[in-house]
Design a protein that fits this description.
Layout (H helix, E strand, L loop, with lengths): L3 E5 L4 E5 L3 H10 L4 E6 L2 H4 L1 H8 L5 E5 L8 H11 L8 E6 L1 H13 L5 E6 L2 H7 L4 E6 L2 E8 L4 E4 L9 H18 L1 H10 L6 H18 L14 H13 L6 H20 L7 H10 L10 H9 L13 E4 L2 E3 L6 H12 L2
Parallel strand pairs: 2-9, 3-4, 3-5, 5-6, 6-9
Antiparallel strand pairs: 1-2, 7-8, 10-11
């Protein structure tokens, strides 16, 4: 990919721009009454000065919250709204500079403040570039449950610069690779093979980000409110979010992608049990996920706690659990009810790996 490229979605554009010149032009043309930049305690230190320099910002306000998923809460959102009151009106713009936690809570805060103000995502982690900043979902966690409060709200634009990735620890890059593995499994055998082949090749990172963005945008543009095919993007998330919520409950938060990798192993196991393919399908994929992503730590006595989070998942209707399953590579299915007993079995399987 060139140093500058644009992907046009139905609702907004995604700019690939290493020097963020397009963001500078966007803000100038927007003629906003005020510009507010939201960061966490990491991006405030590592990314905010560079953003201000590249965009030649002189008149702006910055707000910062403590880093970590455990801070993506209603109380944090309330503090943001209190801080926004004297700074923003309906012609203001909020720039969310950070990873998925910042784009989630920043988008949520902006989408309801004064019934909605403009917001822009500048994702600084690989995971937020390929997933969280794309698709128009906002969310905060509530009562230790992942993403229980949120809105469907579109950013005005997304600005991606891979230069931010130089600030990331290896754990965060690994977390993103789990979401990319998910998209590869949904894409089909060829996409999976290409992902496995190129996972550790730094020179392919921009191409991988671009392809991941196109894949997700193609689905979300057709099904913005998740009534049909967008549901496939929840593959690994019914159980993965439960694992993530369990770790938050135990005050031992884990990266989102690590939880999703565990969720995918469980949901591949369920796929085999339910669709009963004749060949030993998904063994290679399960082995890859097991070998490349850390296992989520929980004990046999904790299974009931994990199950309680699965039962209260926001995607469930009338208590019926329908995780996304794969009939085969590239063929997701999300209309099959799965019993608690079978989910318990898959959790015990995962726990014993």
């Amino acid at each position: 990919m060139s140093r500058f490229a644009v992907i046009k979605g139905k609702h907004y554009r995604i700019f690939f721009d290493e020097e963020l010149k397009s963001l500078r032009r966007f803000l100038r043309r927007g003629n906003y009454s005020s510009v507010i930049i939201l960061t966490d305690s990491n991006t405030e230190r590592l990314c905010l000065p560079k953003l201000v320099e590249l965009c030649k910002l002189k008149n702006y306000h910055s707000l910062s919250i403590q880093a970590g998923e455990e801070n993506k809460t209603l109380s944090t959102a309330e503090k943001l709204w209190e801080q926004l009151l004297p700074l923003a009106d309906r012609k203001s713009v909020l720039i969310n500079l950070g990873g998925g936690m910042i784009t989630d809570i920043g988008g949520f805060a902006a989408s309801v403040f004064k019934r909605g103000i403009d917001f822009i995502h500048v994702p600084t982690t690989l995971l937020s570039m390929v997933d969280a900043s794309i698709g128009g979902k906002t969310a905060i966690d509530f009562a230790n449950h992942k993403n229980q409060l949120g809105t469907f709200a579109q950013p005005k634009a997304v600005f991606i610069s891979t230069a931010w990735l130089n600030t990331l620890p290896k754990e965060q890059l690994l977390s993103a690779q789990a979401e990319m593995a998910k998209q590869a499994l949904l894409g089909g055998l060829n996409e999976w093979q290409q992902f496995v082949l190129n996972i550790d090749k730094v020179e392919f990172i921009e191409e991988q980000i671009s392809e991941a963005v196109k894949f997700k945008l193609k689905i979300t543009d057709k099904d913005l409110y998740e009534v049909g095919q967008r549901k496939q993007l929840n593959f690994g998330h019914t159980i993965g979010h439960a694992l993530e919520s369990f770790c938050l409950l135990k005050e031992k938060p884990i990266p989102h992608g690590i939880a999703i990798a565990g969720g995918m192993i469980c949901e591949l196991y369920l796929s085999v049990k339910i669709f009963k393919p004749t060949e030993n399908i998904f063994s290679e994929q399960i082995e890859f996920l097991k070998n490349n992503f850390p296992k989520v730590d929980f004990k046999e006595k904790d299974v009931d706690d994990v199950l309680s989070f699965i039962s209260s998942d926001k995607k469930n209707i009338k208590g019926i659990i329908k995780p996304v399953l794969l009939k085969r590579m590239g063929k997701p299915y999300w209309e099959k009810e799965v019993t608690i007993d079978l989910i318990r079995e898959c959790l015990n399987y995962y726990n014993q790996l």
